[in-house]
Records
---
Amino acid sequence: MVSKFLYRKEQLRYKKVYRKEKHINLLYKFLIDLNNSKLESDYKKKQTFLIWSLIHKINFKNVLRPTTRCVVSNSSKSVYKKFKLSRMTLKKYISKGYIVGINKNSW
């Protein structure tokens, strides 16, 4: 079984990515509000530049890509999202009869 540490680490990754997306969406909203407002053009240009630089920093400072991992073997290769199992462990569990309703098809 996967250790609790690795499972927790994966959960934290997903939270970080969610937070990052949340911040970027807020900055885009600020940009839209700034463009719709009636301010001086020089001030608008400065503020839009600052917001775009913040978006760029958030996007490229710490790039995180959450990976789907197998719950049993902690493998990141060919993981089925529906079962959260890798191809090999899924095959093993189906052959043992732990997962009901899936049959092996042959041509």
---
Amino acid sequence: MYISLQPEKTAAPRLPKKGRDIQGAERLIKFSELDSFYKNKNRMDEFNISKAEKRILNLLKQGLQDKEIGECAGISPGTVSTHLRNLYRKTGTQNRLESVNTMFQ
């Protein structure tokens, strides 16, 4: 069974805004992958990671690039970069891989 990473309470993926590519908007994760996310919730709280940064981090874990993350989250790639910079600062990491490893070890 799969659920959406989108903020809605339903399991259906959120549709992209008009003019956006639909390809990245329907990426889904398995319930088993979601378990590891909740196990690391305390770690994220320890670093004071915001809700938006948690979403970005979860999409990073799937190996998505800024443009794909933006499409899934409904934000611009520039905003994704801002969230990434904040994640690096808060976690003391320097790149995507370090950030994911720090938060999901």
---
Amino acid sequence: MPRDDVVLVEIRGDLDQHTVPRARKFLSVVTTTATRHLVVDLADVRILDPSGLALLITAEGETGGIHGSLHLLGVIGNHPVERPLTRVGLTGRVSFAPMGEGLR
């Protein structure tokens, strides 16, 4: 059953300097209501550059107009995404679910 306080966003392709401005605007728009949880599915992301990391860090901090506790899907086993997130320490600050599985 859908919940009004959860927003699920699926990102495909690259999350880089070319796509982040559009993604940032979209995330701020879809989380303007009473969003308590922002779930971002990164299973189909193949490039995550520093600007993409910055966007996720902004979302995790609930700043920049993006609201809701951040949860990520499709990170574990998705090395182009998992490696940079681990390097910046985001893996210890948000909840993750393996590719193909829901949140625990």
---
Amino acid sequence: MPHEILEMHPRPQDDDPVYLKLNPQRVVPTLLIGGEPFVESAALLMMLAERHPEAGLAPEAGTEERNRWLQWIIYLSVNLGATYRNWFYPSEPAAERSNRHCLDDESAP
């Protein structure tokens, strides 16, 4: 599979026109397929698995194993993604609110 890896600073400059053209949402990872940018890790993994079944990235389409794989990919993306984002970017407003809520929670041990 032909590809090009571009190294980007984890927080690209807001005014970087090349990056903004590819990804106006400023999120990573970004994958260009046919010159069009796509984002969201779970979606990218599903796209790659579908486009390249020979790579064995996912169980065969139409199988129970594939159904479980899809279920887990979405579960991990939805349930762990936000939590880890707060961990990696604790100074962002959403993380600060979440962390403050955890500290104020009377039920916490």
